[in-house]
Design goal:
The complex is a heterodimer of chains A (about 375) and B (about 350). Chain A is an alpha/beta fold and about 375 residues long. Chain A has 18 helices and eleven strands. In chain A, α8 links the parallel β5 and β6. Chain A starts with a helix and ends with a helix. In chain B, α5 links the parallel β4 and β5. The longest helix of chain B has 18 residues. The chains are: A alpha/beta (about 375), B alpha+beta (about 350). At the A-B interface, α1, α2, α3, α16 and α17 of A face β12 and β13 of B.
Chain lengths: ~375, ~350
């Protein structure tokens, strides 16, 4: 048996012991799309003690993007002369005028890129087109966006611009706690984001709110260890910041990446799906780089921020409900025809739930005892 | 010898350039059915794919009637980009894919039909490469290209080469490989590590700067499949090649079509570490990634061991594994028992694999 599996099973035993001796149910939250997907893929929820709940918080970059910002990206794709570059997950997110996928089938020039620099290269190759890069995501993708803008400036490119809706994970976590909408006994903190920002930014959450924070990687063993560590803290009445991913995450993070972000972006008030506007929770192009703002360049007005009727993605990503609580889930909203973003992204809670967990969740009454307990 | 020397005047230089281009690149006229088409066929295509039936150059291939059995007839188009990638190319794919579609139905291939759609400007040397690859792969499968067609389209309509391959095969009368024969207890076998074709192509297309050891597994499987069917006969109940929608696509279909639950064990599914890393990097589920040299075989439990031995005795089956069983529950679900002791449902993939953000 591979080491990671042995480690995971051992950690799950620890989690079970801690949960049993704590004598009360506990709710943890991860705030990372990769954690959502990894947990779903390895069937983590099906082997957790019944008294432990793991919620998916505002961690999927597509899911937290406000409807208005998504509509803006789709508007931009329809502007004549524009080639819109996007990460793949955004392609199928529905907007008021359909998704980017639909825009593409109707003739809009929409290209999937793997990195922001691909968009800059495209701007060099297609001088007759305005290349607009949809810069979404947390601190993981923001440094790459910053590099692309810096590089475009060095190359003197006048046909590259970005629609920036980058977000910062810490203000989202504190925003969620301040809103009081959900009770959380501990956070499983994201590995990728923490590589960039470091472990220290989580300290106020531990100190001011008394909530344990554990940084983990993405394999099932990492996540199981993280949960065990959180449960043991709850059992012991402790609240500490623990970094279980020290091979990748330092206390100060990646200084070079932080510097790059600082050169190009400034903190800005940002609207989030489900959380509303949170002060200084996003990143916007600073004065010096505002010429690369695609919204200004194309003269697009900000669309009204109106979410699809009945869609509870906002509640899902704030822990207010689980996907099956949403009336649209599975009945109308499926990965084939998604209504909300959480069903679109492979990291979205709804899609992860739909794809991987239906067996465990839907008809518990019809299941045999072995299924429920295994 | 060319009557004019270069450097004579501009018009001559231009004509020489044109003639050089014509010898190196595919032109629209190469698909026009005239002299240039003949030239392309005689100089490039026929020398590579020659066999008595094709050489006759009739409008149809005329094949001898097989004495017994049923005919299997299949067609597939190959539009992979880029046309060449680590481990294979569109030519190898175009033969393997069609031969495998015949083989998993229990058919022995008797002839392939090839339709080439070339983009104007596609280098002749590249065309030669693809044709050589088609020839080599067809020889591996023991089948000939018996008829074909070539068209050239403008640069606006295509960028390199598309191939459509039809295949004709004969299924011996006693063979029947259908999902309704599947029943609880049957073992599910795959002949080697999954996801490598799709990953090799995707890495080459999206991240050419990444050096990877992953190579496409594209290969004709009719040889190993025939050995299996010859020895185990009716104990082999069903087969499919897990191409575009990967293992997930084939096994969710099997569950749905047979009506039984398909139970898989994650730890038993052969996966190379490099493939796992690449899939993680690209944000893909390996179960959903395409294979072109893999076959999923469902056999009666009593012959599972012997089926494994037959696979292991063949280069294309040496890393085979029993990955799961058909279970005695008629819910039509495909369920994966995960390595950590949990379980989850496997769903049929959407269609376009999208890389994720963070």
């Amino acid at each position: 048996m591979p080491q990671r599996v042995t480690t995971a099973r051992h950690a799950l035993d620890r989690l079970g012991d801690a949960a049993a001796s704590a004598g009360r149910p506990m709710t943890f939250m991860e705030v990372c799309g990769t954690h959502t997907m990894s947990a779903a893929r390895c069937g983590l929820h099906s082997v957790m003690p019944a008294t432990v709940t793991l919620l998916s918080g505002p961690g999927c970059p597509v899911c937290v993007t406000a409807q208005g910002d998504i509509d803006l990206i789709i508007e931009a794709a329809f502007v004549p002369g524009v080639t819109l570059c996007t990460y793949g997950d955004m392609l199928r997110v529905p907007g008021r005028r359909g998704s980017l996928e639909r825009a593409r089938s109707r003739g809009a020039d929409v290209r999937i890129v793997y990195s922001a620099m691909d968009a800059v290269k495209m701007a060099q190759q297609l001088p007759g087109r305005q290349i607009v890069f949809a810069a979404v995501g947390f601190e993981t993708t923001a440094p790459a966006s910053a590099v692309s803008v810096t590089h475009a400036r060095e190359l003197g490119l006048t046909n590259f611009a970005a629609l920036v809706s980058h977000k910062r994970v810490i203000p989202a976590m504190t925003g969620l706690l301040e809103s009081g909408s959900v009770h959380v006994d501990g956070f499983l903190c994201p590995g990728h984001v923490s590589v960039i920002i470091g472990s220290e930014p989580y300290r106020p959450i531990v100190d001011m709110y008394g909530i344990p924070c554990v940084i983990t990687g993405f394999e099932e063993s990492h996540m199981a260890l993280g949960l065990a560590c959180l449960a043991e803290q709850v059992r012991d009445g402790a609240a500490e910041l623990v970094n279980l991913y020290p091979e990748a995450v330092s206390s100060g993070g990646n200084q070079v990446a932080q510097q790059l972000m600082h050169q190009v972006f400034e903190p800005a008030d940002m609207r989030w799906r489900g959380l509303g506007v949170i002060p200084r929770s996003g990143l916007a192009l600073n004065q010096e780089h505002r010429e690369f703002d695609a919204q200004l360049r194309l003269g697009l007005s900000a669309p009204e921020d109106r979410e699809p009727r009945g869609c509870r993605c906002g509640d899902v990503i704030t822990g207010g409900c689980v996907p099956p609580d949403c009336e649209l889930f599975e009945s109308v909203c499926t990965p084939i025809l998604p209504i909300g973003p959480c069903m679109v992204s492979s990291e979205g809670s709804c899609q992860a739930w739909f794809k991987y967990k239906r067996l465990h969740v839907a008809p518990i009454a019809q299941m045999t005892p072995t299924e429920v307990t295994s | 010898m060319n009557p004019v020397a270069p450097g004579h005047d501009l018009a001559v230089d231009w004509a020489l350039d044109e003639s050089r281009d014509r010898s190196k690149q595919v032109l629209l006229a190469h698909g026009g059915g005239g002299q240039l088409t003949d030239e392309l066929l005689n100089d490039v295509v026929l020398p590579r794919l020659a066999n008595p039936i094709l050489n006759a150059m009739f409008d149809s291939a005329v094949l001898p009637c097989q004495p017994q059995g049923r005919l299997a007839f299949t067609i597939d188009s190959y539009v992979v980009q880029p046309w060449r990638f680590p481990g294979a190319d569109v030519g190898r794919l175009a033969v393997s894919g069609t031969v495998n579609d015949l083989a998993v139905c229990g058919a022995q291939p008797i002839g392939l039909a090839l339709s080439l759609i070339l983009a104007e400007g596609f280098a002749k040397s590249h065309l030669e490469f693809v044709l050589d690859s088609i020839h080599a792969t067809a020889a591996e499968a023991g089948v000939h290209v018996v008829t074909g067609d070539t068209k050239v389209v403008g640069r606006d309509h295509a960028d390199s080469i598309y191939i459509t391959t039809a295949g004709l095969g004969v299924v011996p009368t006693d063979r029947c490989l259908t999902p309704d024969r599947v029943r609880p207890g049957d073992a599910i076998i795959v002949n080697g590590p999954i996801g490598e074709h799709g990953l090799a192509v995707m890495l080459e297309r999206e991240m050419p700067e990444v050096q990877s050891v992953l190579r496409s597994d594209a290969a004709p499987l009719n040889g190993v499949i025939e050995s299996l069917l010859k020895e185990l006969g009716e104990h082999v109940v069903f087969m499919r090649d897990p191409t575009r929608a990967g293992l997930a696509g084939v096994l969710t279909d099997l569950a749905r079509q047979s009506g039984w639950r398909v139970g898989l064990n994650e730890q038993d599914i052969p996966v190379r570490a490099e493939a796992r890393h690449a899939a993680d990097m690209l944000g893909l589920d390996l179960m959903e990634v395409a294979n072109e040299g893999k076959v999923v075989v469902v056999v009666r439990p009593e012959v599972a061991g012997r089926a494994m031995e037959i696979f292991r005795g063949h280069p294309l089956g040496k890393d085979c594994a029993v990955i799961g069983h058909v279970e005695d529950r008629d819910d039509g679900l495909c369920v994966l028992n995960t390595a950590i002791g949990g379980h989850r449902i496997v769903q049929k993939p959407y269609g376009e694999q999208l890389p994720r953000i963070c």
